[in-house]
Amino acid sequence: MAKTIGIKKEEKNRWERRTPLAPRHVKELSENYGVHSVVESSPIRVFEDQEYVEAGAEVVEDLADVPVVLAIKEIKQEKFEAGTTYLFFSHTIKGQQYNMPMLRELIDKGCQLIDYEKITDSEGKRLLAFGRYAGLAGMIDSFWALGKRLEWEGVNTPFTEVKSAHEYSSLFDAKEHLLQVGRKIKKEGLNPDLVPLTVGIAGYGHVSRGAQEILDLLPVMEIEAKELLDMDMSAATDNFIYKVVFKESDLVKTKSPDEGFELRDYFQNPERYESRFNEYLPRLSLLINAIYWEEQYPRLITKKEANQLYASGEGAKLKVIGDISCDIQGAIEITIDSTDPGDPVFVYDPDTEDAVVGYKGKGPVIMAVDNLPCEFPADSSGYFSEILKQFIPDIASVDYSKDFEDIELPPPIRRAMILHQGELTPDYQYLNEYI
């Protein structure tokens, strides 16, 4: 069987310049495995059409006759072709209502759907993700927002020099600049009104580690959550940033005062727990949300808690919330909208409960860019492509006309196949109730 794949152009917005396969890997797949790539022309993709041509690919205006099509974000419904195999982040596995019409269209056209998010190893660990890059860009954008907010409040800091992530030419360029900012903080110290400058990061996975990778470029002193509560704020130093990484045991407590926290029990019986995170909020300058959250778990911040915090004046210290996870009204309930790299922040007004575009006004600044990795399109695409390429020869050569049980796919890809010939595969039958 001919091995041909297509690379779809991204159409979410002008910021989405990523691609699932970089030209160098397209060339490698052609030379080593005989995989021919057909690339849909794009004026905004981080790699230009000519780079793909030079890598041996064919550049076309549409992918109508290509049997396997790769993208990053959701594909417009009218672009689906009957019987085609599609790979992209479908955002359907939680039964997300806004994408159920798209899933229905794929079913009606008898398509295969392989979701990158579900490409996992035997223990359920994701093999393909942009989490680190979300953390990297999200931390930079949060520092940019902190600088802008403080400047508006009349407080000059080295953070005013930080640019939005997409304004840097590369991740290397961004890191070099943050190192300069860090040296300035170490040498000159921070405005006394800001001391102690405390950064809390909720979560410790890939997203959190990406955020910490940026934060640790600055002079940082890491403390535990309990130390934050016990800290003598007046005795803090001005040439360090205090960093706290919150784990589940810091975020919640049992509803019964006689019982202690137990991680496995929390995951299995979240209804037995309640949030304790509001204890930390008055002592944080910047909060980064990097946790995976579902509705059965307590929120980090509720609207009620935020409204009380800022009404009492205790929220004055918390300038910015970098909601990298960006679940609308999720773990951070006051994330009431998402943003894009061009307008990355809004202020949550606790009086009106509205989102005010920009960084001026009463209430915390919320950074809620919903596709942060696109701010480093070349770096993140190259990383993603390096992992994805190993699966492409098998994906491209499979006969999808066979029964699902007879398809010879690597286990990680088989686990990620949501649809086969327009039918939900066994692991995804639960989606029937949402469609």
Write structural notes for this entry.
With 435 residues, this protein is an alpha/beta fold. It folds into 2 domains: 4-129 and 377-433, 3-Layer(aba) Sandwich (Rossmann fold); 131-375, NAD(P)-binding Rossmann-like Domain (Rossmann fold). It is 29% helix and 16% strand. The protein has 13 helices and 18 strands. It has helices at 23-33, 49-54, 100-108, 131-152, 171-188, 206-215, 225-230, 248-251, 263-268, 303-311, 377-388, 392-397, 411-415, and strands spanning 4-7, 36-40, 58-60, 68-70, 85-88, 112-115, 197-202, 220-222, 241-246, 252-254, 273-275, 286-289, 320-323, 345-349, 354-357, 365-367, 417-420, 423-424. Strand 17 (417-420) and strand 18 form a beta hairpin. The longest helix has 22 residues, at 131-152.
Say which CATH homologous superfamily of the largest domain is assigned.
NAD(P)-binding Rossmann-like Domain
Integer-rounded radius of gyration:
23 Å
Based on CA inertia axes, which overall geometry fits? globular
What about the largest sheet? 8 strands, mixed
Alpha-carbon distance between the two ends: 34 Å
Task: Compute the number of strand runs.
Answer: 18
Total count of domains: 2
Strand content bin:
15-25%
CATH architecture call of the largest domain: 3-Layer(aba) Sandwich
Q: Order of strands in the sheet with the most strands?
A: 3-2-1-4-5-6-17-18
Helix share, percent: 25-40%
DSSP summary: helix tally? 13
CATH class of the largest domain: Alpha Beta
What is the overall pLDDT average? Answer: 95
Oligomer: single chain
Look up the CATH topology of the largest domain.
Rossmann fold
> Poorly predicted ranges (pLDDT <50, ≥5 residues)?
none
What class, by secondary structure content?
alpha/beta
